[in-house]
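From the shared-data thread, chain only:
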Amino acid sequence: MSFKNLGLQEEIVQAITEKGYTEATPIQLKALPFIIARHDILASAQTGTGKTAGFTLPLLQVLMNTRKQGQRHVRALILTPTRELAAQVGENVKAYGTRLPFKAEVIFGGVNIKSQVKQLKNGADILIATPGRLLDLVSQGFVDLSQVEIFVLDEADRMLDMGFIHDIKKVLKLLPAKRQNLLFSATFSDEIKRLASGILKNPQIIEVARQNAPTELVTHIIYPVDKKRKKDLLSFLIRTNKWEQVLVFVRTKHGANRLAQQLTGDKIISEAIHGNKSQSARTKALADFKSGVVKVLVATDIAARGLDIDQLPHVVNFDLPNVPEDYVHRIGRTGRAGNEGWACSLVCIDELHLLADIEKLLKRKIDKKLEPGFEVDPSIPAEPIPNGRNTRSPHQGRGPSSRPQGNSSHRWQNNSRPQGSKDR
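Structure, as C-alpha coordinates:
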Protein backbone atom coordinates (compact mmCIF):
# COMPACT_ATOMS: atom_id res chain seq x y z
CA MET A 1 0.00 0.00 0.00
CA SER A 2 1.30 3.48 -0.84
CA PHE A 3 1.96 5.96 1.93
CA LYS A 4 -0.48 8.42 0.39
CA ASN A 5 -3.30 5.90 0.84
CA LEU A 6 -2.41 5.71 4.54
CA GLY A 7 -3.45 9.31 5.10
CA LEU A 8 -0.17 11.15 4.67
CA GLN A 9 -0.12 14.44 2.80
CA GLU A 10 1.94 15.08 -0.30
CA GLU A 11 4.85 16.85 1.39
CA ILE A 12 5.47 13.87 3.67
CA VAL A 13 5.06 11.36 0.84
CA GLN A 14 7.62 13.25 -1.25
CA ALA A 15 10.12 13.13 1.61
CA ILE A 16 9.56 9.37 1.99
CA THR A 17 10.10 8.86 -1.75
CA GLU A 18 13.35 10.81 -1.63
CA LYS A 19 14.55 8.45 1.11
CA GLY A 20 13.99 5.58 -1.34
CA TYR A 21 10.95 3.97 0.31
CA THR A 22 7.97 2.94 -1.79
CA GLU A 23 5.96 0.48 0.30
CA ALA A 24 4.93 0.61 3.94
CA THR A 25 6.16 -2.12 6.30
CA PRO A 26 3.67 -4.14 8.41
CA ILE A 27 4.20 -2.00 11.52
CA GLN A 28 3.63 1.14 9.45
CA LEU A 29 0.52 -0.29 7.79
CA LYS A 30 -1.00 -1.06 11.19
CA ALA A 31 0.18 1.94 13.19
CA LEU A 32 -0.34 4.89 10.84
CA PRO A 33 -4.16 4.81 10.57
CA PHE A 34 -4.60 4.44 14.34
CA ILE A 35 -2.16 7.22 15.20
CA ILE A 36 -3.60 9.62 12.62
CA ALA A 37 -7.06 8.84 14.06
CA ARG A 38 -5.66 9.95 17.47
CA HIS A 39 -5.74 6.57 19.24
CA ASP A 40 -3.29 5.63 21.96
CA ILE A 41 -1.28 2.58 20.87
CA LEU A 42 0.83 -0.13 22.44
CA ALA A 43 3.04 -1.54 19.69
CA SER A 44 5.55 -4.36 19.62
CA ALA A 45 7.86 -4.65 16.63
CA GLN A 46 11.31 -6.09 16.08
CA THR A 47 14.10 -3.65 15.45
CA GLY A 48 14.69 -3.12 11.73
CA THR A 49 10.99 -3.32 10.81
CA GLY A 50 10.51 0.38 10.16
CA LYS A 51 9.26 1.08 13.68
CA THR A 52 10.71 4.60 13.90
CA ALA A 53 8.95 5.71 10.73
CA GLY A 54 5.88 3.93 12.09
CA PHE A 55 5.45 6.69 14.64
CA THR A 56 7.35 9.66 13.16
CA LEU A 57 5.32 9.76 9.93
CA PRO A 58 1.86 9.81 11.52
CA LEU A 59 3.12 12.13 14.29
CA LEU A 60 4.05 14.69 11.64
CA GLN A 61 0.65 14.27 9.98
CA VAL A 62 -1.22 14.73 13.29
CA LEU A 63 0.73 17.92 14.02
CA MET A 64 -0.18 19.22 10.55
CA ASN A 65 -3.84 18.32 11.08
CA THR A 66 -3.98 20.23 14.36
CA ARG A 67 -1.61 23.05 13.48
CA LYS A 68 -2.36 26.51 14.85
CA GLN A 69 -0.62 29.81 14.21
CA GLY A 70 1.21 31.33 17.14
CA GLN A 71 4.24 30.97 19.36
CA ARG A 72 6.29 27.81 18.94
CA HIS A 73 6.10 25.32 21.85
CA VAL A 74 6.74 21.61 22.39
CA ARG A 75 3.76 19.79 20.88
CA ALA A 76 5.33 16.34 20.59
CA LEU A 77 7.78 14.67 22.97
CA ILE A 78 9.67 11.51 21.96
CA LEU A 79 11.51 9.88 24.86
CA THR A 80 14.31 7.39 24.06
CA PRO A 81 16.73 5.45 26.30
CA THR A 82 20.05 6.23 24.59
CA ARG A 83 21.89 9.05 22.86
CA GLU A 84 22.31 7.07 19.65
CA LEU A 85 18.63 6.26 19.42
CA ALA A 86 17.68 9.89 20.12
CA ALA A 87 19.98 11.03 17.31
CA GLN A 88 18.55 8.39 14.95
CA VAL A 89 14.96 9.38 15.68
CA GLY A 90 15.89 13.03 15.26
CA GLU A 91 17.35 12.33 11.83
CA ASN A 92 14.12 10.56 10.83
CA VAL A 93 11.90 13.41 12.02
CA LYS A 94 13.97 16.02 10.20
CA ALA A 95 14.19 13.96 6.99
CA TYR A 96 10.45 13.22 6.79
CA GLY A 97 9.48 16.72 7.92
CA THR A 98 11.86 18.58 5.63
CA ARG A 99 8.95 20.23 3.76
CA LEU A 100 6.90 20.94 6.87
CA PRO A 101 6.97 24.11 9.03
CA PHE A 102 8.18 22.33 12.16
CA LYS A 103 11.32 22.69 14.22
CA ALA A 104 12.67 19.53 15.83
CA GLU A 105 15.43 19.42 18.44
CA VAL A 106 17.37 16.51 19.96
CA ILE A 107 18.72 16.68 23.51
CA PHE A 108 20.72 14.09 25.43
CA GLY A 109 23.48 13.83 28.02
CA GLY A 110 27.20 13.50 27.39
CA VAL A 111 27.49 16.85 25.59
CA ASN A 112 27.66 20.46 26.76
CA ILE A 113 24.26 21.51 28.08
CA LYS A 114 24.87 25.15 27.08
CA SER A 115 24.77 24.30 23.38
CA GLN A 116 21.41 22.58 23.87
CA VAL A 117 20.04 25.56 25.79
CA LYS A 118 21.02 27.70 22.80
CA GLN A 119 19.24 25.28 20.44
CA LEU A 120 16.05 25.57 22.47
CA LYS A 121 16.13 29.37 22.74
CA ASN A 122 13.68 29.87 19.87
CA GLY A 123 11.47 26.94 20.87
CA ALA A 124 10.75 23.59 19.26
CA ASP A 125 7.63 21.84 17.98
CA ILE A 126 9.07 18.34 18.36
CA LEU A 127 11.51 17.37 21.10
CA ILE A 128 13.46 14.10 21.04
CA ALA A 129 15.19 13.46 24.35
CA THR A 130 16.77 11.06 26.81
CA PRO A 131 15.18 11.22 30.28
CA GLY A 132 18.05 12.59 32.39
CA ARG A 133 18.98 15.56 30.21
CA LEU A 134 15.31 16.37 29.62
CA LEU A 135 14.62 16.60 33.35
CA ASP A 136 17.75 18.75 33.82
CA LEU A 137 16.56 21.25 31.21
CA VAL A 138 13.02 21.27 32.60
CA SER A 139 14.30 21.94 36.15
CA GLN A 140 16.38 24.86 34.83
CA GLY A 141 13.36 26.36 33.09
CA PHE A 142 14.52 25.84 29.51
CA VAL A 143 11.84 23.29 28.51
CA ASP A 144 8.09 23.52 29.07
CA LEU A 145 6.10 20.31 28.55
CA SER A 146 2.70 21.66 29.57
CA GLN A 147 1.39 21.84 25.99
CA VAL A 148 2.51 18.44 24.70
CA GLU A 149 -0.16 16.87 22.48
CA ILE A 150 1.63 13.62 21.60
CA PHE A 151 3.92 11.62 23.89
CA VAL A 152 6.01 8.79 22.42
CA LEU A 153 7.87 6.34 24.65
CA ASP A 154 10.27 4.51 22.36
CA GLU A 155 12.14 1.31 23.29
CA ALA A 156 10.14 1.11 26.52
CA ASP A 157 11.59 -2.28 27.43
CA ARG A 158 15.12 -0.89 27.29
CA MET A 159 13.99 2.09 29.38
CA LEU A 160 12.99 -0.32 32.13
CA ASP A 161 16.17 -2.40 31.75
CA MET A 162 18.25 0.76 32.21
CA GLY A 163 16.39 1.80 35.36
CA PHE A 164 14.57 4.81 33.90
CA ILE A 165 11.17 4.01 35.42
CA HIS A 166 11.41 6.80 38.03
CA ASP A 167 12.50 9.34 35.42
CA ILE A 168 9.63 8.29 33.18
CA LYS A 169 7.18 8.87 36.04
CA LYS A 170 8.67 12.32 36.65
CA VAL A 171 8.25 13.21 32.97
CA LEU A 172 4.64 11.99 32.95
CA LYS A 173 3.79 14.36 35.81
CA LEU A 174 5.01 17.27 33.66
CA LEU A 175 2.69 16.42 30.75
CA PRO A 176 -0.91 17.56 30.35
CA ALA A 177 -3.54 14.95 31.23
CA LYS A 178 -5.18 15.26 27.81
CA ARG A 179 -2.72 13.94 25.25
CA GLN A 180 -2.13 11.09 22.80
CA ASN A 181 0.26 8.37 23.98
CA LEU A 182 2.31 5.98 21.82
CA LEU A 183 4.33 3.25 23.51
CA PHE A 184 6.74 1.13 21.45
CA SER A 185 8.60 -1.89 22.76
CA ALA A 186 10.46 -4.83 21.25
CA THR A 187 8.75 -7.14 23.74
CA PHE A 188 5.44 -7.31 25.61
CA SER A 189 6.72 -8.35 29.03
CA ASP A 190 4.58 -8.15 32.16
CA GLU A 191 6.57 -5.05 33.20
CA ILE A 192 5.73 -3.34 29.90
CA LYS A 193 2.04 -4.18 30.29
CA ARG A 194 2.01 -2.69 33.78
CA LEU A 195 3.74 0.46 32.53
CA ALA A 196 1.34 0.74 29.61
CA SER A 197 -1.72 0.42 31.86
CA GLY A 198 -0.65 3.55 33.73
CA ILE A 199 -0.02 5.63 30.59
CA LEU A 200 -2.36 4.53 27.80
CA LYS A 201 -6.11 5.09 27.52
CA ASN A 202 -8.07 2.43 25.60
CA PRO A 203 -5.02 1.64 23.44
CA GLN A 204 -4.95 -0.18 20.15
CA ILE A 205 -2.63 -3.18 20.48
CA ILE A 206 -0.27 -3.71 17.56
CA GLU A 207 2.07 -6.69 17.25
CA VAL A 208 3.75 -7.52 13.97
CA ALA A 209 5.72 -10.58 15.04
CA ARG A 210 5.28 -13.29 17.63
CA GLN A 211 6.32 -12.24 21.13
CA ASN A 212 10.10 -11.91 21.60
CA ALA A 213 10.74 -13.37 18.12
CA PRO A 214 14.06 -12.69 16.39
CA THR A 215 13.88 -11.80 12.72
CA GLU A 216 13.35 -14.79 10.45
CA LEU A 217 15.97 -13.52 8.01
CA VAL A 218 18.80 -14.14 10.47
CA THR A 219 20.82 -17.37 10.58
CA HIS A 220 21.84 -18.27 14.16
CA ILE A 221 24.96 -20.30 14.99
CA ILE A 222 26.59 -21.31 18.28
CA TYR A 223 30.36 -21.92 18.42
CA PRO A 224 31.33 -23.88 21.56
CA VAL A 225 34.72 -22.61 22.76
CA ASP A 226 36.70 -22.21 25.96
CA LYS A 227 36.60 -18.70 27.42
CA LYS A 228 40.33 -18.12 27.03
CA ARG A 229 40.17 -18.94 23.29
CA LYS A 230 37.23 -16.74 22.34
CA LYS A 231 39.37 -13.90 21.03
CA ASP A 232 41.46 -16.26 18.90
CA LEU A 233 38.33 -17.88 17.47
CA LEU A 234 36.80 -14.49 16.66
CA SER A 235 39.95 -13.38 14.82
CA PHE A 236 40.01 -16.70 12.96
CA LEU A 237 36.35 -16.39 11.87
CA ILE A 238 36.80 -12.80 10.69
CA ARG A 239 39.88 -13.64 8.66
CA THR A 240 38.84 -16.98 7.15
CA ASN A 241 35.34 -15.78 6.25
CA LYS A 242 36.62 -12.36 5.06
CA TRP A 243 34.05 -10.47 7.14
CA GLU A 244 34.26 -6.75 6.45
CA GLN A 245 31.72 -5.32 8.91
CA VAL A 246 31.14 -7.01 12.27
CA LEU A 247 29.25 -5.76 15.33
CA VAL A 248 30.50 -7.62 18.43
CA PHE A 249 28.65 -7.58 21.75
CA VAL A 250 30.44 -7.92 25.08
CA ARG A 251 29.23 -7.81 28.65
CA THR A 252 31.35 -4.99 30.14
CA LYS A 253 32.96 -1.67 29.21
CA HIS A 254 36.41 -2.94 30.23
CA GLY A 255 35.85 -6.05 28.14
CA ALA A 256 34.93 -3.91 25.13
CA ASN A 257 38.13 -1.86 25.41
CA ARG A 258 40.30 -4.95 25.88
CA LEU A 259 38.81 -6.87 22.96
CA ALA A 260 39.04 -3.90 20.57
CA GLN A 261 42.72 -3.49 21.47
CA GLN A 262 43.41 -7.22 21.05
CA LEU A 263 41.71 -7.38 17.65
CA THR A 264 43.57 -4.29 16.45
CA GLY A 265 46.76 -6.03 17.64
CA ASP A 266 45.76 -8.88 15.31
CA LYS A 267 45.61 -6.32 12.47
CA ILE A 268 41.79 -6.23 12.50
CA ILE A 269 40.97 -2.54 12.93
CA SER A 270 38.47 -2.28 15.78
CA GLU A 271 36.87 0.33 18.02
CA ALA A 272 34.95 0.05 21.29
CA ILE A 273 31.72 1.88 22.03
CA HIS A 274 30.21 2.04 25.52
CA GLY A 275 28.74 4.35 28.13
CA ASN A 276 32.07 5.70 29.39
CA LYS A 277 33.04 6.96 25.95
CA SER A 278 32.32 10.61 25.19
CA GLN A 279 29.54 11.31 22.73
CA SER A 280 32.03 12.62 20.17
CA ALA A 281 34.09 9.41 20.46
CA ARG A 282 30.98 7.25 20.09
CA THR A 283 29.82 9.25 17.06
CA LYS A 284 33.25 9.00 15.39
CA ALA A 285 33.54 5.25 16.07
CA LEU A 286 30.12 4.63 14.53
CA ALA A 287 30.89 6.82 11.50
CA ASP A 288 34.20 5.02 10.92
CA PHE A 289 32.42 1.67 11.22
CA LYS A 290 29.75 2.65 8.71
CA SER A 291 32.35 3.94 6.25
CA GLY A 292 34.52 0.81 6.51
CA VAL A 293 37.53 2.46 8.17
CA VAL A 294 36.80 0.31 11.22
CA LYS A 295 36.07 -3.36 10.52
CA VAL A 296 34.84 -4.39 13.97
CA LEU A 297 32.74 -2.35 16.39
CA VAL A 298 32.82 -3.81 19.91
CA ALA A 299 29.83 -2.67 21.93
CA THR A 300 28.02 -3.09 25.22
CA ASP A 301 24.24 -3.51 25.15
CA ILE A 302 23.48 0.02 26.31
CA ALA A 303 25.73 1.68 23.74
CA ALA A 304 24.48 -0.46 20.86
CA ARG A 305 20.78 0.17 21.42
CA GLY A 306 19.50 2.34 18.60
CA LEU A 307 22.46 1.86 16.26
CA ASP A 308 21.07 2.18 12.75
CA ILE A 309 23.43 0.47 10.30
CA ASP A 310 22.11 -0.39 6.86
CA GLN A 311 22.64 -3.99 5.70
CA LEU A 312 24.87 -5.00 8.61
CA PRO A 313 25.84 -8.56 7.65
CA HIS A 314 27.34 -9.98 10.87
CA VAL A 315 26.60 -9.78 14.59
CA VAL A 316 28.71 -11.72 17.11
CA ASN A 317 27.87 -12.38 20.75
CA PHE A 318 31.36 -12.56 22.24
CA ASP A 319 29.62 -12.79 25.62
CA LEU A 320 26.05 -14.02 25.91
CA PRO A 321 23.72 -11.48 27.53
CA ASN A 322 22.58 -12.00 31.12
CA VAL A 323 19.02 -11.10 30.11
CA PRO A 324 17.68 -13.41 27.37
CA GLU A 325 15.54 -10.69 25.76
CA ASP A 326 18.75 -8.80 25.02
CA TYR A 327 19.72 -11.59 22.62
CA VAL A 328 16.71 -10.59 20.50
CA HIS A 329 17.74 -6.94 20.60
CA ARG A 330 21.32 -7.75 19.67
CA ILE A 331 20.63 -9.92 16.66
CA GLY A 332 18.06 -7.37 15.52
CA ARG A 333 20.98 -5.23 14.37
CA THR A 334 21.31 -7.58 11.37
CA GLY A 335 18.67 -8.94 8.99
CA ARG A 336 17.06 -5.50 8.69
CA ALA A 337 14.71 -4.15 6.03
CA GLY A 338 14.42 -7.46 4.17
CA ASN A 339 18.14 -8.25 4.09
CA GLU A 340 19.53 -11.58 5.30
CA GLY A 341 21.77 -11.53 8.35
CA TRP A 342 24.09 -13.84 10.25
CA ALA A 343 24.45 -13.97 14.04
CA CYS A 344 26.89 -16.17 15.90
CA SER A 345 27.58 -16.66 19.60
CA LEU A 346 30.86 -17.81 21.12
CA VAL A 347 29.71 -19.85 24.09
CA CYS A 348 31.86 -21.25 26.88
CA ILE A 349 30.77 -23.65 29.62
CA ASP A 350 30.22 -20.74 32.04
CA GLU A 351 27.40 -19.49 29.79
CA LEU A 352 25.40 -22.67 29.26
CA HIS A 353 22.71 -21.51 31.69
CA LEU A 354 22.43 -18.22 29.75
CA LEU A 355 22.15 -20.18 26.49
CA ALA A 356 19.39 -22.31 28.01
CA ASP A 357 17.45 -19.16 28.95
CA ILE A 358 17.79 -17.80 25.41
CA GLU A 359 16.65 -21.07 23.82
CA LYS A 360 13.70 -21.18 26.21
CA LEU A 361 12.70 -17.68 25.11
CA LEU A 362 13.08 -18.58 21.43
CA LYS A 363 11.33 -21.95 21.95
CA ARG A 364 14.04 -23.70 19.94
CA LYS A 365 17.63 -24.93 20.03
CA ILE A 366 20.18 -22.81 18.22
CA ASP A 367 22.30 -24.60 15.63
CA LYS A 368 25.83 -25.50 16.74
CA LYS A 369 29.06 -25.61 14.75
CA LEU A 370 32.33 -27.06 16.04
CA GLU A 371 35.37 -25.23 14.64
CA PRO A 372 38.40 -27.58 14.33
CA GLY A 373 41.28 -26.40 16.47
CA PHE A 374 39.00 -24.65 18.96
CA GLU A 375 37.44 -27.68 20.64
CA VAL A 376 36.09 -27.35 24.19
CA ASP A 377 38.25 -28.81 26.98
CA PRO A 378 35.80 -30.80 29.17
CA SER A 379 38.15 -30.64 32.17
CA ILE A 380 37.71 -26.86 32.57
CA PRO A 381 35.12 -26.16 35.31
CA ALA A 382 32.38 -23.56 34.95
CA GLU A 383 32.73 -20.29 36.88
CA PRO A 384 30.11 -17.67 37.85
CA ILE A 385 29.45 -14.95 35.26
CA PRO A 386 30.41 -11.55 36.78
CA ASN A 387 28.68 -8.17 36.43
CA GLY A 388 25.28 -9.52 35.41
CA ARG A 389 21.87 -8.47 36.67
CA ASN A 390 21.18 -12.12 37.46
CA THR A 391 24.68 -13.12 38.52
CA ARG A 392 24.80 -16.65 39.90
CA SER A 393 26.78 -19.79 39.49
CA PRO A 394 25.58 -21.81 36.51
CA HIS A 395 25.05 -24.68 38.95
CA GLN A 396 22.79 -22.76 41.34
CA GLY A 397 19.08 -22.10 41.31
CA ARG A 398 18.26 -23.62 37.94
CA GLY A 399 16.48 -26.70 36.69
CA PRO A 400 18.27 -29.68 35.16
CA SER A 401 17.61 -28.59 31.59
CA SER A 402 19.79 -25.47 31.97
CA ARG A 403 22.53 -26.96 34.16
CA PRO A 404 25.60 -28.58 32.58
CA GLN A 405 25.10 -32.33 32.76
CA GLY A 406 28.31 -34.19 33.42
CA ASN A 407 31.14 -32.78 31.34
CA SER A 408 30.80 -29.92 28.85
CA SER A 409 31.29 -32.02 25.73
CA HIS A 410 28.30 -34.18 26.69
CA ARG A 411 26.16 -31.08 27.20
CA TRP A 412 27.19 -29.74 23.79
CA GLN A 413 26.39 -33.06 22.12
CA ASN A 414 22.85 -32.89 23.48
CA ASN A 415 22.53 -29.43 21.98
CA SER A 416 23.80 -30.44 18.54
CA ARG A 417 21.70 -29.63 15.48
CA PRO A 418 22.33 -29.46 11.74
CA GLN A 419 24.09 -26.30 10.67
CA GLY A 420 22.71 -23.54 8.47
CA SER A 421 18.94 -23.49 8.89
CA LYS A 422 17.14 -20.20 9.39
CA ASP A 423 15.09 -19.33 12.45
CA ARG A 424 11.42 -19.89 11.51
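The CA atoms of residues 285 and 298 lie 10 Å apart.
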